[in-house]
Every structure is written in structure tokens, then in C-alpha cells.
Write a structure and sequence with these properties.
The chain has two helices and seven strands. By secondary structure, the chain is of the alpha+beta class. The protein has a single domain, classed as Thiol Ester Dehydrase, Chain A (Roll).
Length: about 150
């Protein structure tokens, strides 16, 4: 299954300037592949770094997390939840991501118990790994500003 930005926005609560996934190109049970097109127009390049624009590593991780959240929140039982980071493990950055790069992020579900789980994310540019991490998360159901278990 594929999703364009409109479908992604139906699922994820993130919005500009913090929606960091442009397209889902593959979605199956336990695995998702998403794309973030990195352009010079990104807000973070104004200060990171002037004259040498590099996508911040934490935003690469956030992009991977949003791709994974799209997979999890696509499931009917998790619709309406808010995804929260719970942990980051085995994080590795392999090379900088710069304007003009297309981040292709493959995210796999490692385990899930209730609404808490762990994902494995790998981000690539032109088949070269640029970052990887294990992403712990919690899907919290919120109604009218209050957490509901």
C-alpha cells in the first residue's frame, strides 16, 4: 500500500513545520517504507548550518519515527492515539544529509505489547545508510486534553 501526504495527514497529528514524511511507498504488517525529500527550503537549514546546510540528526530520527508511527496508527486500534518517544537505542549516524537528498526510511516493528513497542529504523540516501536506530514508543489515547488508558 502507498500513501500520499493527504492520507498521511489523516493518520499523523504532525503538521508544518514538523511533519517530516512526504510519502509512504510501502506498507505491510510490521514493515513500512517512507520518503522525506530534503530541500533547501527546510526551516532548520537557516541555522544548521549557514553556508553548510546539514539536516540535524535528531530530525532524521524524528522522520524515521513518523514513518513508523504512520504504520502503527494506520491500524484501527491505534487511530486517534498520540505517538510519544519512549527511548532511542543503538543510534548511529553514518553521513550527513544535505539539501537535494531523498531520505528513504525503512522501519520494522520489533515488538509490541499493548500500546508500547519498539521499532528498528534505517534511513538511506541512494542506497547508502545515513542513520539507524531502535525507536521505543508509546501510543497514548488522548481525549479533550486528558490521557486515557
Amino acid at each position: 500500500m502507498e500513501m500520499d501526504i493527504r492520507k498521511i495527514q489523516e493518520i499523523l497529528p504532525h503538521r508544518f513545520p514538523f511533519l517530516l514524511v512526504d510519502r509512504i511507498v510501502a506498507l505491510e504488517e510490521g514493515k513500512v517504507v517512507g520518503i522525506k525529500n530534503v530541500t533547501m527550503n527546510e526551516w532548520f537549514f537557516q541555522g544548521h548550518f549557514p553556508g553548510r546546510p546539514i539536516m540535524p540528526g535528531v530530525l532524521i530520527l524524528e522522520s524515521m519515527a513518523q514513518v513508523g508511527a504512520t504504520m502503527m496508527m494506520y491500524m484501527e486500534e491505534f487511530r486517534g492515539c498520540i505517538p510519544y518517544f519512549a527511548s532511542l537505542d543503538n543510534v548511529r549516524f553514518r553521513r550527513p544529509v544535505v539539501p537535494g537528498d531523498q531520505l528513504v526510511m525503512e522501519v520494522t516493528l520489533l515488538r509490541m505489547k499493548g500500546r508500547v513497542g519498539k521499532l528498528k529504523g534505517v534511513a538511506r540516501v541512494k542506497d547508502q545508510v545515513v542513520a539507524e536506530a531502535e525507536l521505543g514508543f508509546s501510543l497514548v489515547r488522548e481525549e479533550a486534553g486528558k490521557e486515557v488508558s
